[in-house]
Amino acid sequence: GENVEQHPSTLSVQEGDSAVIKCTYSDSASNYFPWYKQELGKRPQLIIDIRSNVGEKKDQRIAVTLNKTAKHFSLHITETQPEDSAVYFCAATGSARQLTFGSGTQLTVLP
Amino acid sequence: GAVVSQHPSRVICKSGTSVKIECRSLDFQATTMFWYRQFPKKSLMLMATSNEGSKATYEQGVEKDKFLINHASLTLSTLTVTSAHPEDSSFYICSARRPRTGANVLTFGAGSRLTVL
């Protein structure tokens, strides 16, 4: 089955700086890669996603890049704000058509 | 659109009792729903895939007799934790595939925090 690894597990940045979270996946058949933001005790919220036929996607301060050859994808948040502080999960859809989640990254934006 | 409602949000029960958690798609039909379990500061672990009108598909290591899943309609899936024990205490989250999006674009319920005393 699919295996998704995510790094780093914790990330602290100063407000206004950029944050980058990286994930790798194992199933070369995976074709859909969403990123979720989860605040403490709340439901995961989809913030951006990318499909395997695209190398990069941007939505305001958030961007995701995908390298299919290397089987890794990354989340980039620019001009971070305190409200960006949360746990971020990457995920990948493997050949079983199920989402497999990474282990999560606790992002803290310091004012 | 694509709202998923989950109830109860919190439940405390005594060891040995059973607890039912409901997951409803409010404004769309969901032929497939997913149940996840999340431990504190950990990732979401898929427990089972709930299929409307058929048996759920459980992930390896998940006891199907302990975690009963029923998906009797296109808008409702239920997870029943039977004979709950303290080690079943966790955050349970359901999700459903958003319609007309393809792939696995999921909408999550708000989660249910189960505490077994």
Structure notes:
- The complex is a heterodimer of chains A (111) and B (117).
- By secondary structure, chain A is an all-beta fold.
- Helix content of chain A is 0%, strand content 57%.
- Chain A has no helices and eleven strands.
- The mean pLDDT of chain A is 93.
- In chain B, strands 2, 4, 5, 6, 9, 10 and 11 form a seven-stranded mixed sheet that branches.
- Chain B is globular, with a radius of gyration of 13 Å.
- The interface between A and B is medium-sized, with 24 and 19 residues.
Summarize the structure.
By secondary structure, chain A is mainly β. Chain A is built from no helices and eleven strands.
> What structural category characterises the helix and strand content of chain A?
mainly beta
Number of helices of chain A: 0
Beta strands of chain B, count: 11
What's the average pLDDT of chain B?
91
Sequence of secondary-structure elements of chain B: EEEEEEEEEEE
Mean pLDDT of chain A: 93
- Please mark out the parts of chain B with pLDDT under 50 across 5 or more consecutive residues, or reply none: none
What keywords describe this structure?
heterodimer; A: mainly beta; six-stranded mixed β-sheet; five-stranded antiparallel β-sheet; 11 strands; globular; B: 117 residues; mainly beta; four-stranded antiparallel β-sheet; 0% helix
Give the secondary structure arrangement, pairings included.
The complex is a heterodimer of chains A (111) and B (117).
Chain A: E1 4-7, E2 10-14, E3 19-25, E4 32-38, E5 45-51, E6 56-59, E7 62-67, E8 72-77, E9 86-93, E10 99-101, E11 105-110
Parallel strand pairs in A: 2-11
Antiparallel strand pairs in A: 1-3, 3-8, 4-5, 4-9, 6-7, 7-8, 9-10, 9-11
Chain B: E1 4-7, E2 10-13, E3 19-25, E4 32-38, E5 44-51, E6 57-58, E7 67-73, E8 76-81, E9 90-97, E10 106-108, E11 112-116
Parallel strand pairs in B: 2-11
Antiparallel strand pairs in B: 1-3, 3-8, 4-5, 4-9, 5-6, 7-8, 9-10, 9-11
